Amino acid sequence: MALMGVQLVVSLLAACVMQRMAPHLSFARWLLCNGSLLRFKHPSEEQLCALAGKQAPKTNRRDRRQNGAVESKPLTVPKDIDLHLEATPVGVLDALVLRLFLEYQWLVDFAVYALGVYLFTEGYYCATDASAEVNIGAIWCVLTILFCLKTLYTLMSQYFRSEEGGERSVCLAFGFLSLLVAMLVLVVREDYLEFGLEPGFASLFTNLESFAKQQGYMWSIPVSKLCVKLALATVCAFIGALLAFPGLRLAQTHLDALQMNDDRPVIKILLHVSFLSPVLVLLLWVKPIARDFLANAPMGKTTVTLIPSSAFSSVRLWIVVALCLLRLALIRWHLQAYLHLAQKWVGQMRREAGRIAAIDIQRKVTRVFCYLAVVTLQYLAPVLLLLFSTLALKSLGDFSWGLVPEVPGVSPVEAGLPAEAPPAPGAGQEGGGAEMEDEVAAAVAQLLGGLSALRSLLSPVFCRGLLAFLAWWVAACQVISSLFGVYFHQYLIVTLPTTTDSAHLSR
């Protein structure tokens, strides 16, 4: 059977290897613990006492008796002491104290294996005529998208549990803002934003009615496009709330990374390009700016075709993938900029007057490192969400990676007709009735029938519109939240010194 082919074997092998090798070989663990990141160790009480010019206490706390009870008095030191934190590479054992490290490891490792399976399926489709088979790589991409959303929801739920700091209000504010923007975007005509939602919805309704009639139900879909768009806008609001704090965090790490690499102009240019890459993604789906301009670029009194309209979709996919890879390549500079927050806080403390408890210094320095996995998830999850949405758009939307103009054919599914049902497990075989009664064959036949029915409903036209809009909306949320984060850290943080951007989830 088509499902029990090479793709399924490779998929099961990848799942088995991921499960067996995770404790021994993990790309997520290597990303943080390869020695390129430097964390700052908190000072001991003896070091703080030496810097303060006092003798270290014999015990960690000085006790004082009052009314027969023992009251502990914490050690305090002046804030303006000459404190310099010791830097050390992040080790494997250090990762054990990172909060949400297991969620981070699972998401990153799954994304790596999903990318490997996807690359194999793309090569398999190029080498063989496997158009009738179910694309296993696309299923892995969809699962990665769902896991990214689940991880972002886990992070947002931590903010909602906080009773202080206004994190819940920030998430709700970005959610309502995203709802408003999504409703405005969904009423824009296809002549300006070429997602393909209108033909996609029409294809979905036609396929649903055809599928109902095929199953013997005389059912007319009583759902209007307005209801569908309202539901889609609600989903967009939820995604906007999920991407609120990742965008704020990206803005802070971007500004700190620019400050750290002030003497490296090449790295600064790449950081700027990476930060503004979602803006370019937004423009790629604006038809007058992207497709129409490149197909008829004005050159004096004549027009020149830079990219044919038939090949523009492939070029757009390549550009989005390249921008995602660029942001993934610059993760080290952003994470190191986050880890330097400990040293930055110490420098700010030294400019203040008064005294501070030694335990507070140790706690604040340690807390920065403990939330390294959380910050890494905030950086990686939106990038992986955009990357795998683009990969799924290519596979489920029947696009091509080739840059040459192609004349796409119209499949029965794309035309709105249900796909032809696959043959039964024992069709065309004589004398094999007893063997085909095996439970494995029956399970495979049932799974194949369900996937074929789903494939007949979700036509390439519908997948193109939905996944193109998802990729564009993820980039739009990143633009909104990151630009607001730049404004916040550049201006509002000066006038609101007690406001926090929730760098930590410790409250």
From TrEMBL:
The keyword Glycoprotein applies. One of its GO terms (cellular component) is membrane. It is found in: Membrane. Belongs to the TMEM161 family. The chain crosses the membrane at residues 137-156, 168-188, 228-248, 269-286, 306-330, 368-393, 465-488. Residues 1-28 form the signal peptide. It comes from the Eukaryota. Keywords: Glycoprotein, Membrane, Signal, Transmembrane, Transmembrane helix. This is Transmembrane protein 161A. It is a multi-pass membrane protein.
